[in-house]
Amino acid sequence: MARQLWRPATESDGIPLDVLCTFMNNLTEWREEHLRHVGVPSNFQQDWDFVSAVTACASDATYHIMWIILFNALDDFGIREVNDLVRTGSPGNTSPNHAQIEGIKKKFSEEALHGALRIAGLAGVLTTNGYLRLDSAVMHVSCIQAGTLLARLGRPEVQNCIAGLEQYAYAYEECLEQAQEIRRVYASATAGQLDLGHMASVVPRPGPGPFSGVEGGMSVDTGMGGLNGHGMDPQQQQQQSPYLASPHGHALGVGVGVVPGMEGLYAPPGHNGFA
At residue 84, does pLDDT exceed 70? Predict the structure, then answer.
């Protein structure tokens, strides 16, 4: 990806369609073969300590951030075949494989959004357990990238990434500024000021404001409103699964309570996470 994306020819001409297809196929194959072994498992029945939890979350996020990087590159540079048409004065949608190109763009958009939501969910788990106060920044870049994308799209789930960065700020002061910048981008997006380029045609517009609902098979808990800060009363919360179902067969907690197996490791409110 680094060799293909960050070179002058790509910046000036766009990303070749066949290169995008190769990235897409390779990432899909890697996910099917490896992610279940190194990422966060679908259940937390075993006892998880700090190192196990952070390591699995970081490995999981490292995969999903690849889709976000590719989305950003597509948005910045576009697809070479479309750019070539535009340079000749023809509309980009006159390409004979226009439907295929839009389908590929939509695939990258969906995977990037799923990846950002996944990372936001993982950040929520770690933040709820107070782990990011102890973590040596292995989720730092993931929180920034996922949070920035969610903010650009006006997605309220960005609050998990903001909260994670704010918890990181106990050890890394610059994280507070990064959280504030993401909050600013989110406010602009929800006000209708979307900052999108080549991917604007396949990205849904943000709704009227923060909400709780279901998107792409993932339960959304924005942590806003409600009697307990999660949009529901305590009795409702006990009935809700602490996991998020994922289109890729994952399951994860998003800070709705404490991850099973981590109860003894939870840092209570006001506790700094250290024994």
Answer: yes
